[in-house]
Amino acid sequence: MPNRLRKVVFPVAGLGTRFLPATKVVAKEMLPVLDRPLIQYAVDEAVDAGADTLVFVTNRYKHAIADYFDKAYELESKLAQSGKNELLAMVQGTLPRHVRCVFVTQPEALGLGHAVLCAKPVVGDEPFGVILPDDLIWNGSGAGALRQMADLSVRENGAGVIAVEEVAREQTDKYGIVDARPLSERAAKINLVVEKPKPEVAPSNLAIVGRYVLPGRIFELLENTKPGAGGEIQLTDAIEALLGERSVLAYRFEGTRFDCGNKLGLVKATLAMALADPALAGPTRAYIADTMG
Ligand code: UTP
What we know:
Number of helices: 11
CATH topology: Spore Coat Polysaccharide Biosynthesis Protein SpsA, Chain A
Shape: globular
Bound molecules: uridine 5'-triphosphate
Radius of gyration: 19 Å
Strand content: 15-25%
Order of helices and strands: EEEHEHHHEHHEEHEEEEHHEEHH
Distance between the termini: 53 Å
CATH superfamily: Spore Coat Polysaccharide Biosynthesis Protein SpsA, Chain A
CATH architecture: Alpha-Beta Complex
């Protein structure tokens, strides 16, 4: 059965305080892992899942993401004139031709739920995906995490699907944690979502990470969601309300997640990509061996 996920939302209006001072001027999503910014990995995953409309929820300071996916006339004509065709193809290949980008502004950073709600006029009433680009999920040449989730949603009659990952017990207070009943090796039906529970009261160690397949109905639920902790409108609160109406599945995706919203995660992602790159793997291994003495 074909998956019907045409639109994917990228909430990228956060302040990125963990990467200050760089994020004074560089959007967190533009930080590179090797030669590609985080947003490129996220966009590739959305396109792999079937998306043809990418909705970026940005703030008024983040022009770099729009610039990155726009045509770079001067650079492209210089590369063409000097016959640097491989580089030209790379610059022109950031976005396939059939895919369009829509930019929506989140006027104030009022939380992830609020950022997703800002995409409502573009998404309308159809199922859509959400990717948080700072969670880089790498599955080599296999299906991307969002494609796996979109396929599951179609197989399960349009159920909402939320990516989860097992985390160490002492980490539960950093994530939304689900209580879920297993349905298959990777999927489980969610009974309850708890935002950042202390390890001793957490219902499990299955943590929500940055991928969602949601029905358009979530927008109405977000509109009725009151600001929670820190005055932010939480996406998990609206998902909690959705649980009362329809099936929402937790899905343990195939692939490795790197939390590139923090420094160690970005270092790990960079090392993993370097070790997977035929030209860089050898020298990277040699460097690590030398450094470890
Ligand atoms: P984070 O919790 O990682 O916040 O947001 P942040 O501002 O990006 O980074 P730090 O914690 O200050 O370093 C999770 C995702 O939600 C988006 C962020 O851009 C990120 O993709 N977000 C968060 C918004 O788009 N708007 C918001 O109001 C809050």
